[in-house]
Structures are given as C-alpha cells and as structure tokens.
Write a structure and sequence with these properties.
GO terms for molecular function: GTP binding; GTPase activity; metal ion binding; rRNA binding. Its cofactor is Zn(2+). It holds the Pfam family RsgA_GTPase. The protein has 349 residues and is of the alpha/beta class. The chain folds into three domains: 11-81, OB fold (Dihydrolipoamide Acetyltransferase, E2P); 87-245, Rossmann fold, CATH 3.40.50.300; 258-324, Ribonucleotide Reductase Protein R1, domain 1. The protein is 35% helix and 21% strand. It contains ten helices and 13 strands. The chain has helices at residues 11-14, 20-27, 121-134, 151-159, 178-185, 200-208, 258-264, 266-273, 289-295, 301-348, and strands spanning 35-43, 46-51, 54-58, 70-74, 77-81, 87-91, 99-104, 108-114, 137-143, 166-169, 189-193, 233-236, 242-245. Strands 10-9-8-11-13-12 form a six-stranded mixed beta sheet, sandwiched between helices. The chain has a five-stranded antiparallel beta sheet with strand order 3-2-1-4-5, covered by helices on one side. Strands 6-7 form a two-stranded antiparallel sheet. 40% of the residues are buried.
Length: 349
C-alpha cells in the first residue's frame, strides 16, 4: 500500500505532527512498499514507529533514530531518517565525545523543577542552555507548588536563573498552571525534561487526561525519586500537540552549546558587551563591566561562576571532539597506508 503524501496527509500521521513539508522531504526516500512514520520509542536495539497503518516495531538501519525522528520504513527496517528541524542533545553521560540525542523535532522544552527541594538554579541553567541550543523554546515549570506558602516568590526567584524563558507555577493536585502548560504543549511537539522526582510523569498524565504513565514517590530528605519513566516515549495529546516524556536526568552535560549558553545567560553576555576591551577575559582588565557588576552586587557571583563553568565545559567537550576526529583521521590514513604497502609487496613478487 502506498502512503498518502498529498498536501493533506493521512489523519493518523497528522496527530503526530506530519505535514506537507515532511511529506516533501520523504518523497526522495519512498519507493513501493515504503511508509513514513514517527519514532515513538527506541529500546534495546528496536524502534517503535507510529505510521498510518498503526504502531509498528522495526529495526534501525545505518543511522539509529531518536524519539521524535521522522523515518521511512521498508520491511520493518528503518531505511531513512529525515533531516531534523531541531534536536535536543546533551553530552554523553559516559564521558565520550559524542553527544546523546534526547529528542528530535521538538518545538517546546518543558523543564520540570520540583518546588519542595528548591529551584537548584545550576541545573535549570544547564537545561536552559541545552533547550536554547536545540532551537526549541524553553518553558520552566515549577511543579508541586501546592506545598509552598508563597509560590509567586518562588517563581520570581527561579526567573532570575531563566532570563527570556517563561516560568510557570504548576500543581497537578489543585490544577494551578495546567492551562498555561497545556497551551504551551499544544504548539507542536513538546519534550518534558528534569530530574527524577520532579513530577514529570504526573504532569504528563495531567496533560493526557488519564493515568497513562507510571508515577513514583520521592524521598523527603533530598527530593530524589526513582526513574518511573524508564525510556523516552512519544504520545499524542488529546487537545492537540505531541508530548515526549523522558526519564529523570541525573547528569546534564553541555556539548556544542555555545549559543545556547549565551541565550541562557543573556544578562552576563549583555554586561560583557559593555566591557572596555572587546577581548576582555573578565579577570583583572580595567573597565570590565562584568567584574564591576559582580562587585556591586548587580550580578550574583554564583551566576557568573555558573556561566564560566558551562563555557569551560563546552570548550572541553569541543576539544575532545576535535581530538577524536583527529584520531579517526590518523587511523584511516594508517589503514590506507597499510593497504598500499600490501599492494606494493604483491606487485614486487
């Protein structure tokens, strides 16, 4: 059966974000028996894909897709991964130079922050850097605010670490803020990220209108919980839009995120632009607007330190990537040289 690639695509695929532009991209990869679909889950070397014929289980091809990718299938094998519009990536938790794709083709990143353990601005800033770098729009969601005495004050404190991003107070118990989050999630594809115990699955179930995803308890002493979401899962929201729920993130490393870091720290970048010297290192140079702002208490020293730490980490990751690429080139040329020497020996016999 040939897939419907007209400007008005199959209604089943439309539920997951399919449109005429995706159809146009898929045309180059489609042959008889090939069908397009969107990746709902990647687990143990297998891929679950939403297609117009239902949810299919397939094997990845040469390129392993991520949740949110649009792909083309043939005989239960992914034959092509369509070019991504956006991609949310963190540094690989193993410390390797490669990045780990958390979600592809997302429009909004909901960053869940549990209210009962404080805002933890450093973690929020890291997630904001990744979100801005991805090309999506971040929204910071302060969850479980029903346990706070002054949620507006908590939102104001959190907003200091999230310039340019909307910060919403939410309670799945009272319903506070759910309409705001639902409106944000209705705009295309939304990925929900945050630490374990942040209430991501509870929030996702509230948006879905039913208990679809498992939820768990958290420890009162540190607010940490078990990973009730064990894998990334893409589901269609009843009110429109698509949601990707993710497991709790313990480590949030940055990689190739220079622009995202600057977007997450616009206050610091604006101050740096006001320094007397364009190449100011913000250490001991005269006329340094950043250092002056820190000394005057206008820029929190913690925030300046957090910015510098992320920049150094991003530069370190870039250096590791360059070293890996150089090593791969050396290995490739060694292999070529070895093959040439073998060929010369054969000719000399």
């Amino acid at each position: 059966m040939s897939p419907d690639l007209s400007p008005d695509p199959a209604p089943v695929l439309c539920r997951y974000g399919w449109d005429a532009s995706w159809a146009q991209l898929a045309l180059a990869h489609l042959e008889s028996g090939h069908v397009p679909g969107r990746v709902a889950r990647v687990d143990r070397g297998r891929v679950d894909v939403h297609t117009e014929h239902g949810r299919l289980r397939a094997a990845p091809g040469r390129e392993v897709p991520a949740v949110g990718d649009w792909v083309v299938l043939a005989s239960s094998v992914v034959t092509a991964v369509l070019p991504r519009r956006t991609v949310l990536t963190r540094a690989d938790a193993s410390g390797r130079s490669e990045g780990q794709v958390l979600a592809a083709n997302v429009d909004t990143v909901l960053i869940a922050v549990p209210a009962e353990v404080g805002s933890r601005p450093g973690r929020v800033e890291r997630l904001l850097a990744l979100a801005w770098e991805s090309g999506a729009t971040p929204v910071v969601v302060l969850t479980k605010v029903d346990g706070l005495e002054d949620s507006p004050a908590a939102v104001a404190d959190l907003a200091l670490a999230a310039p340019g991003a909307e910060v919403v107070a939410v309670s799945a118990v009272t319903g506070e803020g759910l309409d705001v989050v639902a409106a944000a999630a209705a705009r295309g594809t939304t990925v929900l990220v945050g630490p374990s115990g942040a209430g991501k699955s509870t929030l996702a179930n509230a948006l879905l209108g039913e208990e679809v995803l498992a939820v768990g308890e958290v420890r009162a002493r540190d607010g940490k919980g078990r990973h009730t979401t064990a894998h990334r899962e893409l589901v269609a929201l009843p009110s429109g839009g698509v949601l990707i729920d993710t497991p709790g993130l313990r480590a949030v490393g940055v990689r190739d995120a220079a622009e995202g870091i600057d977007r997450a720290f616009t206050d610091v970048v604006d101050l740096a632009d006001a320094c007397r010297f364009a190449d100011c290192a913000h250490d001991h140079e005269p006329g340094c607007a950043v250092r002056a702002a820190v000394e005057a208490g206008e820029l929190p020293a913690r925030r300046w330190a957090a910015y510098r730490k992320l920049v150094r980490e991003d530069e370190w990751a870039a250096a590791r990537t360059d070293a890996r690429l150089a090593a791969e080139r050396r290995a490739r040329w060694k292999s070529i040289a070895k093959a040439q020497r073998a060929a010369y020996r054969e000719r000399g016999r």
